[in-house]
Design a protein that fits this description.
Layout lengths: L9 H10 L4 H12 L14 H10 L6 E8 L4 E7 L5 E9 L2 E5 L3 E3 L14 E4 L2 H16 L7 E4 L9 H12 L11 E5 L3 H8 L6 E5 L5 H7 L8 H15 L3 E7 L7 H11 L4 E7 L13 H13 L4 E3 L19
Parallel strand pairs: 4-7, 7-8, 8-9, 9-10, 10-11, 11-12
Antiparallel strand pairs: 1-2, 2-3, 3-4, 5-6
Helix pairs in contact: 1-2, 4-5, 6-8, 9-10
């Protein structure tokens, strides 16, 4: 028995209803209620027979995340929300407003198995993977909120708690469901997936036929330092990560972004900028520099602005496209590397 209708693809939902003796158009109706009209109760689905609604409620209950603590940065319009899952676990998700963009940052795991040295989520350890419906449910929660204001989600960044390519099937299923033209219909290019460089996952993603934006967390220009900052980096050397990124860019035509968190006195020296430029020279790539976002218990400091600017200029001088990314929600611990649900 399926746990949650939001875990199903359209074809799986169609097959389930067909097995119940329902005509094919019932799946289209139900899919539209779930993914386009953003229903939260079968009783609202008034074009479905009452007998079907009752059976759905019994056998395929709508398992929605329960909103908990909400933190708001009123100046930015950024919201961080704790969502409680049916088994009692919880994840944090973020809504960011910038101009006309309404971006939801979603989590794919409770905790994270990677344990990056500068990331608050990694200090939690790994608890469990999220299901496809639990991942997509974060987007749908904010979509319902925005619809009441006459707005909609414009972008999704898979950069919250967890490593999405270590929960590959659930993450891709959630993306495909949100991308489905008969439902939520969010274009593939409006998704950005961030990974620490899980090479088999990158190679698999390149074969999916989806033009997702890919961001790879590099954070160091040499293997030794990268393994200190990103322990999982020991499994896939930088050269293998870059080769996988090249293949992804070739297969999709999409430029790959490389995320680089600047840590004062650790990886922010001009010589390290030059080493990073040598790695990325000639590649279809862009660097996002992210000054460290402080979080309780983490031993690092944000570099001064002059240091950040010097690093940026050094990359530009060597022909590397670069942007300094100012994380939104830092004041409410909603920025890059700040999400967690327990000490």
């Amino acid at each position: 028995m399926w746990r949650n209708p939001f875990d199903l693809t359209y074809e799986e939902l169609k097959g389930l209803l067909s097995g119940w003796g329902e005509p094919p158009y019932r799946a289209r109706q139900l899919w539209a209620w779930l993914w386009r009209r953003l229903a939260t109760d079968y009783r609202d689905m008034t074009d479905l027979p009452s007998s079907l609604r009752e059976r759905l409620a019994r056998e395929l209950p709508l398992l929605l995340p329960r909103p908990g603590a909400l933190q708001l940065d009123a100046e930015e319009g950024t919201e961080k929300l704790l969502l409680h899952l049916p088994d009692g676990e919880a994840v944090e998700t973020v809504l960011m407003r910038e101009g006309k963009r309404r971006t939801v940052c979603v989590s794919t795991q409770v905790g994270c198995p990677v344990g990056c040295a500068f990331c608050a989520t990694g200090r939690m350890g790994f608890v469990r993977d999220l299901s496809p419906g639990e991942i997509a449910g974060q987007v749908l929660h904010f979509a319902r909120r925005l619809s009441r204001e006459g707005e909609r989600v414009s972008h999704v960044v898979i950069m919250g708690m967890g490593e999405p390519l270590l929960n590959y099937q659930a993450t891709l299923k959630a993306i495909r469901n949100l991308n489905h033209p008969a439902g939520f219909s969010l274009g593939a290019r409006r998704f950005t997936l961030s990974t620490v460089g899980v090479v088999p996952g990158i190679l698999r993603l390149a074969r999916e036929g989806l033009q997702l934006n890919l961001a790879i967390s590099l954070h160091a220009p040499d293997q030794g330092l990268r393994e200190e900052l990103v322990p999982l980096g020991s499994r896939w050397p930088i050269r293998e990560v870059l080769a996988a990124a090249d293949l992804y860019a070739l297969a999709t035509g999409r430029r790959v972004s490389f995320e680089y968190v600047l840590l004062s006195g650790v990886n922010d020296a001009p010589r390290q900028a030059r080493a990073l430029a040598r790695l990325l020279s000639g590649r279809l790539a862009h660097v996002n520099l992210i000054p460290f976002n402080p979080a309780p218990g983490l031993p690092f400091r944000r570099p001064p602005e002059s240091r950040v600017e010097a690093f940026r200029r050094e990359l530009l001088r060597h022909g590397v496209d670069v942007t300094v990314r100012r994380s939104r929600g830092v004041r409410i611990q909603a920025g890059c590397g700040q999400l967690r649900t327990r000490p």
